[in-house]
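Q: Given only this backbone (592 positions), what sequence would you predict?
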């Protein structure tokens, strides 16, 4: 418990101040130390890498200049050719029509000589430039490959899971699980009533990260969801007809008219979208429900902010009056209508628990979160239903949590590697920390303990179905998707068998997508000629397709960065089709 109090002291119920003055700097220092230690551990020749990288950039700049010079030469050559042809045509016209040139020698000898001389000159320049550029490119490739070769030993040492490790070292209040265990998810369902309200047969988990804040659980879950909607398809044709009119002199004239006719059809269309949700589970205020939507209040000017507060004050005053008349329990915090106006949780169902949650200290801290202009401010929706808190923020939804972080580090230059690493770690820490900021702003949450079940490390571990879905979505989709699927696929588990002896989950998966077929509808449209015309509209019919597969999944106990020997035993196993970020092993068995 002493560790918990120290962590609370670090936050001090003011997450924005704590981040700006403490955590941000601490995390940056830890990240710098880690990457510098890794580079030193790799034993690479840093100075030679920097020298080779510098030479590569130098020759890259030369290559760009040569490329631009070649484009200029080609442009001049084309211009001379066009001008020569135009001059020749004009001179020919003048000679034939006006006898302007005394002899045809000037026309048919001088101009061609000038053209051929210019052509030869610039062709020579282009050929010479291309030769120089080719030689230069060979040199820059040599320096690039040498720089890559020198830095290569660093990348295997940057282990998966380091972003979580650095975050926890900087901010010990947040700790991560290796997996969301099956037993743990069951515990959350029993003790907190936890279910993902956005989970359905048309959604699949594409990212999952679980952990706890002072022993209170959290789950970050990203779903890919298919929603069947409609799409408009458009087509057009151009028609023409002749109209006759008689002028004032009695002369009958024909006038050609044209018109573009357009038509559209509306057809079913599958839409796919993703959404990250942070679920935080806490027993405080267990009967309270409310919803607040983000409004980016931090972007308002001082004048706009005052106007907004005055307007919302009137709204809450009116709600108080209506609640009294109708006998409802709603009662605004009349002592702090500014907080009411910016947090704006008008649909709350329990005034007592709402006030227990949002004490004056919580209101003050939450206000700083909402009005923070230096980070994300009011970009989050906050939904509380009993013991479950769901936070949906724009910044977390936009951050590529599920993407292999190593992809952001690949480079040839050790200085660029350090910069890329530090930027990624900073962005990751900033995104995760500020996703929790609304939770950290509420003292009651930080002071409500929860006794977690601590599972034995050596006990065989099976993942929750949410985690299984996540790791299934990391493998090559062609392995489990229907061969004719032309859209994204929703992968769902339809059967599961836990093999205690081997430690593998044997799971049956159905992957659902859509095949598409081009169709043409002909829509009758009346034209300006008074006739009906058939306008073809091309559209696509989306037909559901699905395929079933059987896979074996095994969860190892450690992050890669924790250097678990168990993970190393599987590195050369040819049957493994995926050892992903937490060294989960997935074997594809067969299509069913």
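A: Predicted residues:
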């Amino acid at each position: 418990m002493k560790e918990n109090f120290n962590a609370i002291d670090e936050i001090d119920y003011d997450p924005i101040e704590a981040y700006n003055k403490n955590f941000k700097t601490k995390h940056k220092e830890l990240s710098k130390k880690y990457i510098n230690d890794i580079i030193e551990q790799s034993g690479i020749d840093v100075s030679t890498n920097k020298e080779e990288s510098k030479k590569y950039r130098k020759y890259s700049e030369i290559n760009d200049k040569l490329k631009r010079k070649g484009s200029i030469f080609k442009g001049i050559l084309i211009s001379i050719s066009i001008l020569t042809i135009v001059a020749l045509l004009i001179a020919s016209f003048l000679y034939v029509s006006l006898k302007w040139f005394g002899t045809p020698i000037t026309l048919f000898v001088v101009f061609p000589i000038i053209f051929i001389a210019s052509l030869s000159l610039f062709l020579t320049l282009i050929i010479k430039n291309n030769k120089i550029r080719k030689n230069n490119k060979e040199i820059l490739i040599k320096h690039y490959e040498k720089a890559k070769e020198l830095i290569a030993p660093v990348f295997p040492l940057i282990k998966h899971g380091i972003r979580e490790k650095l975050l926890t070292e900087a901010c010990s209040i947040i700790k991560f699980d290796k997996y969301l265990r099956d037993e743990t998810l069951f515990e959350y369902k029993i003790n907190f009533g936890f279910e993902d309200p956005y989970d359905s047969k048309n959604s699949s988990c594409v990212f999952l990260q679980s952990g706890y804040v002072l022993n209170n659980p959290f789950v970050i879950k990203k779903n890919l969801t298919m929603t069947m909607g409609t799409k408009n398809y458009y087509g057009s044709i151009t028609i023409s007809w002749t109209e006759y009119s008689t002028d004032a002199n009695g002369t009958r004239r024909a006038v050609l008219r044209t018109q573009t006719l357009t038509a559209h059809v509306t057809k079913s269309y599958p839409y796919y979208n993703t959404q990250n949700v942070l679920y935080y589970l806490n027993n405080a205020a267990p009967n309270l429900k409310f919803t607040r939507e983000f409004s980016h209040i931090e972007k308002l000017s001082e004048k706009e902010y005052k106007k907004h507060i005055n307007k919302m004050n009137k709204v809450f005053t009116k709600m108080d009056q209506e609640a009294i008349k109708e006998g409802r329990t709603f009662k605004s915090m009349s002592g702090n209508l500014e907080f009411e106006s910016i947090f704006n949780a008008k649909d709350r169902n329990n005034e007592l628990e709402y006030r227990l949650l949002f004490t004056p200290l919580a209101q003050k801290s939450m206000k700083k979160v909402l009005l923070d202009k230096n980070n994300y401010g009011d970009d989050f929706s906050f939904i509380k239903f009993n013991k479950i808190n769901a936070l949906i923020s724009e910044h977390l939804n936009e951050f590529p949590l599920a993407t292999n972080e190593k992809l952001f580090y690949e480079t040839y230059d050790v200085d660029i590697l350090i910069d890329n690493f530090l930027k990624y770690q900073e962005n990751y820490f900033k995104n995760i920390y500020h996703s929790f900021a609304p939770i950290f702003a509420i003292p009651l949450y930080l002071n409500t303990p929860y006794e977690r079940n601590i599972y034995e490390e050596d006990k065989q571990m099976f993942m929750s179905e949410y985690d299984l879905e996540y790791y299934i979505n990391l493998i090559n989709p062609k392995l489990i998707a229907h061969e004719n699927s032309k859209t994204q696929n929703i992968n769902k588990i339809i059967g599961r068998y836990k093999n205690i002896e081997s430690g593998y989950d044997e799971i049956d998966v159905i992957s659902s997508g859509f095949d598409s077929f081009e169709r043409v509808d002909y829509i009758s449209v009346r034209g300006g000629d008074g006739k009906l015309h058939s306008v073809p509209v091309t559209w696509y019919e989306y037909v559901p397709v699905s395929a079933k597969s059987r896979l074996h999944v095994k969860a190892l106990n450690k992050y890669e960065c924790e250097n678990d020997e168990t993970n190393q035993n599987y590195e050369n196993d040819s049957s493994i089709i995926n050892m992903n970020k937490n060294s989960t092993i997935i074997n594809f068995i067969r299509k069913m």
